């Protein structure tokens, strides 16, 4: 079996220069010094969890990029999808000492990386969400509820949901016209109380406030 000197020399390490740098004279100390260098530099304990965590983080980032390449996501939505995708690996990682808390740290690290790279933006997500749902006839209350489920930055909603009441009333009329046509109360048609109540409940289900609904039908 090769001693420390032979092994270091086989790796192309000049043992004489190594000794000189450390002030070790060619003597009985020589082998002891080289053995210590070997122990310190080549026999470090192997930590399998480090490689596993690094691979998990890379896999998370790759999957997050694929998701964000398809459409914008809120931060809460992205974390939930990553958790669902990779939670099955937690049991495999436990044998390396990676527990649920460390898994959560990996998720947060991935989110932070996505935000630093500008892959994920709650500002862009909320702007797109509000625009899309308004175009589909959804009201402010429904939009706010949806955003709260997907993003932690719901304070951004105030910039996009500060809508003119007259504009909202016009939108509500369009929603009723599309649903009920000539029988819509928005067209000024005479409605039986039960039909009026039905249309009012429909607008409420779409996320419009009772105040605006009453204003539209009065």
Helix % is 55-70%
Number of domains: 4
Q: Tell me the Rg in angstroms.
A: 32 Å
Largest sheet: none
Low-pLDDT runs:
none
Kindly report how far apart the N and C termini lie.
Answer: 98 Å
Elements, N to C (H/E): HHHHHHHHHHHHH
Report the sheet-strand fraction. Answer: under 5%
Number of strands: 0
**What does the overall shape look like?**
elongated
Distinct helical segment count:
13
Content-based structural category = mainly alpha
The overall pLDDT average reads: 80
Quick description:
The protein is mainly alpha-helical. About 70% of the residues lie in helices and about 0% in strands. Belongs to the RecX family.
Walk me through what this model shows:
This is Regulatory protein RecX. This protein is mostly helical. It has 4 domains: 39 residues, no CATH class; 73 residues, no CATH class; 41 residues; 55 residues, Orthogonal Bundle (Arc Repressor Mutant, subunit A). The chain contains 13 helices and no strands.
Write the layout of secondary structure elements.
Elements: H1 4-10, H2 15-22, H3 29-42, H4 48-70, H5 75-86, H6 90-94, H7 100-116, H8 122-135, H9 140-150, H10 157-160, H11 165-180, H12 193-205, H13 210-217
Helix pairs in contact: 4-7, 5-7, 11-13, 12-13
Supply database-style keywords:
mainly alpha, RecX_HTH_2nd, 218 residues, Regulatory_RecX, RecX_HTH_3rd
